[in-house]
Amino acid sequence: xxxxxxxxxxxxxxxxxxxxxxxxxxxxxxxxxxxxxxxxxxxxxxxxxxxxxxxxxxxxxxxxxxxxxxxxxxxxxxxxxxxxxxxxxxxxxxxxxxxxxxxxxxxxxxxxxxxxxxxxxxxxxxxxxxxxxxxxxxxxxxxxxxxxxxxxxxxxxxxxxxxxxxxxxxxxxxxxxxxxxxxxxxxxxxxxxxxxxxxxxxxxxxxxxxxxxxxxxxxxxxxxxxxxxxxxxxxxxxxxxxxxxxxxxxx
Length: 251
What we know:
Layout: E1 8-15, E2 20-21, E3 26-27, H1 34-45, E4 49-54, H2 59-65, E5 70-74, H3 83-98, E6 102-108, E7 113-115, H4 123-126, E8 132-140, H5 144-149, H6 151-156, H7 160-166, E9 171-181, H8 182-200, H9 210-221, E10 226-228, E11 248-250
Parallel strand pairs: 1-4, 1-6, 4-5, 8-10
Antiparallel strand pairs: 2-3, 6-9, 7-11, 8-9
Helix pairs in contact: 3-8, 8-9
């Protein structure tokens, strides 16, 4: 067992490289620590515990940057799934194995997210032990990008189209930040990975389906327990480095 998993509060991320990234339209280099440095430094600065799941960092890089705050776990990427989707298998396996040792956990993007405040010490988090916390965007579920993103899942999931209608005026949730206590995160991630296994393995569209599946599950099964937006995340894609009130800054 990693030294800080026991009864811990964790921030966890995946960094899968060497495969085409449909969101960035390129292939991330395999052993470039600079891509995750800001994320790791922000966690270290706050005295928190972070885990980086990766498939291509060298042994030397992991040894150099492992600390009492940051740990690395090597994984093998199943190319049947896009990295944005496969991370939920990795998280599901990890949470299942260590559920009895984890108190609370946040799963985040890593190359464009930094932690500004320790979420686990915030009153909003402490007073909402059954909440699913997540990021959001300054747009609604009904937007052109999400309509295109949902094309594959709309054909696979019977009530996907009706969910889109029911929640069309609600905020678009962002899966780059997801967290809560283990009692909410374990069932959520299990169900999210099950959706991807059943409905997204045969996705040959230009869109990964990660945002579609996340919004669908969060809104249809966990909507009464959702907390999103300020102060959990900064305004998405505003690159607002002056916002120090948020827990996570996302681009």
